[in-house]
Amino acid sequence: VDIDPKAYVENLSVGNKQLVEIAKALMLKDPSILIFDEPTASLSRQEIDILFKIMNDLKRSGIALILVSHHLQEIMQVCDSVTVLRDGKTVLSTRIEETSMDQIVSAIIGKKATNNEYLPPATPRDTEPLLRAEKLCWKNIVKDVSFSLYGGEILGLAGMMGSGRTEIVNMLYGISRPTSGRIIYKGAYKNMKHPADAIASGIVLVPEERRTNGLILSDAIRMNMMLPIWKRLSRLGIINDRKGKKIARDMVERLSIKTTDIDQKVMNLSGGNQQKVVFAKNIACEPKVFLLDDPTVGVDIEFKSNIAQSIRNLADAGNAVLLISGELDEMARIADRILVIRQGVIAEEIDRASGQEISEKTLVFASQMIG
């Protein structure tokens, strides 16, 4: 591994940080058991191959290894046995040679796989794309990604953690600048230098990390909701506070945010209600493109059940929705079209309008395949 031993860890890439952590564990004196928790999540293919060689050498030397991984292809490749946990219980435990990828997927999914109710669009999607990505690249994580996003549709980005899906959204929102490629919005080239550029253009983001990227926790619900729409609420430099309070109250009622009042600090809300504030803040911007990065993480069951309809309503109103979700059953239920991201490239496109099946099972398989 080409890492300078004198380098500071904070200056290393995410992948190299992971390798340093693994090296630290390997330096223990005569370990009998080593546990690897998602060790390949941030590694390149070459780094993964190095790791697997190390793991096989350790196994041959008599050390027991436990590999925790969502990458089923890796489980099949390097493990001797597999145990599947669901809802804190063992649902499958067997030797690798006595099972198959299909059986493992079925064990992971359980009964949820049979619930694939689709929410059909009220109106067909636009014929011309609202937003286009052309050969977007970011460092060595996203590689020549091109796609179109239409008004009236929900486009899903499916992929394992570290596949590059969040990095794609970050470029569209101006958090990261593409290494190469370009973004075309409403037929014109857009240079998103900052999230403010995206918001001004009508593009908003519900981020994966709401506490660090989506909220000012020490501020009030009202102030968080008004933050991206100050200009709309201002005239001659004076903010129309009455109008802002009405918007905040309407959003609290619309999304059933459980709070004492709109001046309660966001840090005192539950995780689910914090996520609702992020969602409300972006709806208040009245955008045309919604970028949703795992929008239901940590929310209550009631909100999870109605957010699918809320997302569908956004698309049916003519908006474009780009959806990332770690819950593939959720994505399969509401997305019109899905791009499967593997190792930074679009490996597959599944379009319901073309008669292709979109289900949790097909998405698990597509996300796991190694091209």
Low-confidence stretches: 112-116
The proportion of residues forming helix, as a percent range, comes to 25-40%
β content, as a range? Answer: 15-25%
Integer average pLDDT: 85
Morphology: globular
Our count of helices gives 14
Main structural class: alpha/beta
Q: What does this entry show, briefly?
A:
Helices cover 36% and strands 23% of the residues.
Blueprint of the fold:
Layout lengths: L13 H13 L6 E5 L7 H16 L3 E5 L3 H7 L2 E6 L2 E7 L5 H9 L19 E10 L3 E9 L3 E5 L6 H9 L6 E6 L2 E3 L4 H7 L1 E4 L3 H4 L7 H6 L3 H4 E2 L2 E2 L1 H14 L16 H13 L5 E5 L7 H16 L3 E5 L3 H7 L2 E6 L2 E7 L8 H9 L3
Parallel strand pairs: 1-2, 7-14, 7-15, 10-13, 13-14
Antiparallel strand pairs: 3-4, 5-6, 5-8, 8-9, 11-12, 15-16
List keywords for this structure.
globular, 6-stranded mixed β-sheet, 4-stranded antiparallel β-sheet, 371 residues, 14 helices, 36% helix, 16 strands, alpha/beta
Structural commentary:
The chain has helices spanning 14-26, 45-60, 72-78, 101-109, 165-173, 195-201, 210-213, 221-226, 230-233, 241-254, 271-283, 301-316, 328-334, 360-368, and strands spanning 33-37, 64-68, 81-86, 89-95, 129-138, 142-150, 154-158, 180-185, 188-190, 203-206, 234-235, 238-239, 289-293, 320-324, 337-342, 345-351. It has 14 helices and 16 strands. It has 371 residues and is of the alpha/beta class. It has a 6-stranded mixed sheet, with helices on both faces. Strands 6-5-8-9 form a 4-stranded antiparallel sheet, covered by helices on one side. The longest helix has 16 residues, at 45-60.
